[in-house]
From TrEMBL:
It holds the Pfam family TatD_DNase. Keywords: Hydrolase, Metal-binding. Belongs to the metallo-dependent hydrolases superfamily. This is TatD related DNase. It comes from the Bacteria. One of its GO terms (molecular function) is metal ion binding.
Amino acid sequence: MDYIDPHIHFVSRTTDDYETLAKMGCVAVSEPAFWAGYDRGSAEGFRDYFEQLTSFEPSRAAQYSLRHYSWLCINAKEAENVELSREVIALIPEYLDRPGVLGIGEIGLNKNTRNEATVFLEHLDLAARTDELVLIHTPHLADKLPGTRMILDMLTSDARIKPSRTLVDHVEEHTVREVLERGYWAGMTLYPTTKCTPERAADIVERYGPERLMVNSAGDWGPSKPTAVPDFIFEMRRRGHDESLIRRVVYDNPLEFFGQCARFEFSPRG
């Protein structure tokens, strides 16, 4: 089955991972800007990173007939530095017209601090002024539920931000309902040790249905599995779900969401 991984950090993966995903049916990946494993010291470091995301990674993916798309921001882990964040946000418009750039993300909260909220709101303002899609990071563990509610409240306070053009990622059982009830798209990240497992993601689909739900691997520096989406496909098949329902979550939904961006150029194969 063809599928799309809507959130994977390929700057932290080897080229072999592109080949493996292509062999398993992946036809496109979407890479949000994120933490480099350390806090960067200048806006120029982000300029180099944006070049990597928008120029180099698409060429690596193309070697295996994969389409690579990207998102731009300063991530929540580095957003405590408001001065640096504002310098980075000022750079982003230079890159928004590049092929394959889908919007602003992954923005959000890490420890739910005032500075993180300030930078989140300034990202939202940029997205609203430039009419961009938004991809959102929700916090981990004990910070997730209060952070998700903070994020939803900030989103709804800005009437310019359309829920249909916003993807709230890393949802789990205790946050997915509020995200969906407010009309946003929801992403389930399949990690080996935290966030969702393929089994838990299948449970969520069975409980809430496939509308506005996606699954992704995130595939970053830490314990993660770039082939987690196929694991979800196999779990859904094991439970006897129709191929059309599985395809809705792993292929049709990403196409529908990303298709709202004029720079999302994609031709299904076959």
